[in-house]
Predict the 3D structure of the following.
Amino acid sequence: MSLVPILMPSPMMPHVVEALEGAFALEKAWLAPDPAAFLAGVAPRIRGIAAGGHVRVDGPLFDRLPRLEIVSSFGVGYDHIDAREAGRRGITVTNTPDVLTDEVADLAIGLLLATIRHLPQVDRYVREGRWLEKPYQLTPTLRGRKVGILGLGRIGKAVARRLEGFGVAISYHGRTRQADVPYRYHESLLGMAEAVDVLVSVAPGGAETSGIVNAAVFRALGPTGIFINVGRGSVVDEPALIEALRSETILSAGLDVFADEPRVPPELIAMGHVVLLPHVGSASVETRRAMGQLVVDNLLSWFAGEGPLTPVPETPWPAT
Ligand code: A2R
């Protein structure tokens, strides 16, 4: 029996490649000297995609893959995939939720504390021998703060649970009020920004959230305000964030995600009062391994006729 052809447009972790090579005919497009010609050759046969990185998977690609059944994507965010269009065409999309929730929530707390208590700056201070001259300046505090979470989903809730241990007031904004959470709901993001002095964004990317954290939100957050982003860079109007930091409209920011990764605006790099991370929310050996395994397991399950393990809401299973 011939193996099912699976397209891998961009490189993925070695254990994912190995596992898929053992079970499928894996077509590694990125290794081809001419990827476009390569794709044209294999396209009529492809029945699944293993999608890593941020390669766009959308209508024009679907048009070229007449036998495509499933897109198994690495990561919980899938704004680089047109899942609605996939749904319309009967193509299933899967992501890797849950296995990274705690890891990203841990990182969000670390980033919040690093930003408020200047952890990268004080580390540099010691290394530069400046402690010998005088103690480091006093920092702002998390004590007494009100934290607003934009996107109280799986990760947002895990962040909130951790924050409960820090004794801070917690509220949230999303499109819908959730009945069974003990946190205050704000119908509008602007209203929440007015009420809090830390805004943590864990909302997904995509057209609906594009630029919703904007200049007005930063003005509402105010001069003691701290903005933490572990969701998607596209959720923020980045020039407005830069201006808010430059003009001290807000106090500081801790950012793990950016609008045009891995390019970080030089204005942010030049600022000493922001903490910048290279999108490492889920980036531990164990968690990235589990995410990769889920990419593999979704494909194995699908082609064993058992349906997807973690379909995205736009392509529910069983199909409705
Ligand atoms: O809006 P709701 O009530 O469905 O809440 C979801 C919220 N959300 C939004 N909030 C405000 N405006 C929107 N247009 C909007 N769209 C969605 O984001 C929900 O509470 C949250 C997403 O939660 P989950 O789907 O459980 O995702 P998870 O696993 O927490 O990951 C969140 C994001 C990923 O999409 C990646 O971009 C990133 O974290 O790694």
The pocket of A2R is lined by residues 76-77, 97, 104, 151-156, 174-176, 202-205, 208-209, 231-232 (CB under 6 Å).
